[in-house]
């Protein structure tokens, strides 16, 4: 382990361009810095710093060694911070506004695990789709789906939400199965937030305006209406996957399914953020890394 000695001192000298400045930064004597760097150079077998009366510069070998040493110190710092964060006791109330089946069936369980890891923390999760005023509503962050309007808020993507079109076998037997999205104009569709559905054909986007007898901004209500045979539904596939697997719904128009939109975590752009909020946001972003929009 002695081979690690002198690395911190060497990096400080390289960045401060001098032994005195490095000593001041590290809070030690110049002679200590000089000894540690000299021992490091002896161990690696080459000169790392070109010394002169005016300044200290990196040699060619020193520049290469500095890059690796700097990466090593950054990794060590991050490891120390991560361990320290694990020891932090989070308290207070984390207030979250959310909407949609993804928030209900995926984000909520993730935040439950976060709450279990921090027994002093209280989570207040409000399910609604209205516009949130972060100050008046006292909300820390929101979970939203779809395109977001430009604003001063920060939005971090959680997952992509590929689409799926479905209907019951009884509906398809009675009204026929469409072979192309353009045929949806002749069908009754179960509509969620948008009556213009986006499909993909040969890499090109095709917008189809639909109509139907049932409309709701609640994914569970859309799912139930589709299962009752009120028409064709088109939403993120996680909404329908369980019903498809159980045989209650049948996928249709699969070659034309669109990529869909994304689910986002949105919060204020402010300089000081409570640790519980910052850690919860980072936790969710990490939690949904490589997460697939599967059956919920």
Automatic annotation (TrEMBL):
Keyword set, alphabetical order: DNA-binding, Transcription, Transcription regulation
Protein name: Transcriptional Regulator
Transcription regulation keyword on record: yes
GO MF annotation list: DNA-binding transcription factor activity; sequence-specific DNA binding
InterPro entries attached to this UniProt entry: LysR-type_TF_proteobact-type, LysR_HTH_N, LysR_subst-bd, WH-like_DNA-bd_sf, WH_DNA-bd_sf
Protein family per UniProt: Belongs to the LysR transcriptional regulatory family.
Keyword Transcription found: yes
Pfam families: HTH_1 (PF00126), LysR_substrate (PF03466)
Organism, as annotated: Alteromonas naphthalenivorans
GO terms classed as biological process: DNA-templated transcription
PROSITE patterns per record: HTH_LYSR (PS50931)
Ranges for domain HTH lysR-type: 10-59
Recorded superkingdom: Bacteria
């Amino acid at each position: 382990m002695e081979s690690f000695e002198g690395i911190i001192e060497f990096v400080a000298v390289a960045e401060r361009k001098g032994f005195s400045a490095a000593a001041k930064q590290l809070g030690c004597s110049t002679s200590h810095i000089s000894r540690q760097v000299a021992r490091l150079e002896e161990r690696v077998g080459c000169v790392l710093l070109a010394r002169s009366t005016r300044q200290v510069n990196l040699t060619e070998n020193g520049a290469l060694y500095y890059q690796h040493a700097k990466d090593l110190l950054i990794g060590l710092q991050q490891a120390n911070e991560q361990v320290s964060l694990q020891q932090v006791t989070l308290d207070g109330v984390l207030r979250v506004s959310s909407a949609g089946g993804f928030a209900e069936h995926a984000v909520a369980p993730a935040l439950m695990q976060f709450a279990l890891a921090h027994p002093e923390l209280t989570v207040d999760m409000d399910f609604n789709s209205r516009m949130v005023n972060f100050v008046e509503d006292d909300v820390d962050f929101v979970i939203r789906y779809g395109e977001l309007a430009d604003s001063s808020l920060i939005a971090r993507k959680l997952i992509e939400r590929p689409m799926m079109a479905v209907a019951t076998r009884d509906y398809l037997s009675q009204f026929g199965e469409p072979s192309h999205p353009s045929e949806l104009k002749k069908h009754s569709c179960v509509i969620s937030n948008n009556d213009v559905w986006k499909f993909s054909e040969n890499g090109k986007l095709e917008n189809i305006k639909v109509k139907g007898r049932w409309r709701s901004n609640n994914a569970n209500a859309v799912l139930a209406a589709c299962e009752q045979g009120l028409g064709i539904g088109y939403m993120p596939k996680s909404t329908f996957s369980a019903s498809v697997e159980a045989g209650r719904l049948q996928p249709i128009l699969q070659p034309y399914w669109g990529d869909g939109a994304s689910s986002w975590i949105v919060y204020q752009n402010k300089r000081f953020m409570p640790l519980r909020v910052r850690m919860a946001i980072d936790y969710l972003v990490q939690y949904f890394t490589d997460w697939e929009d599967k059956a919920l």
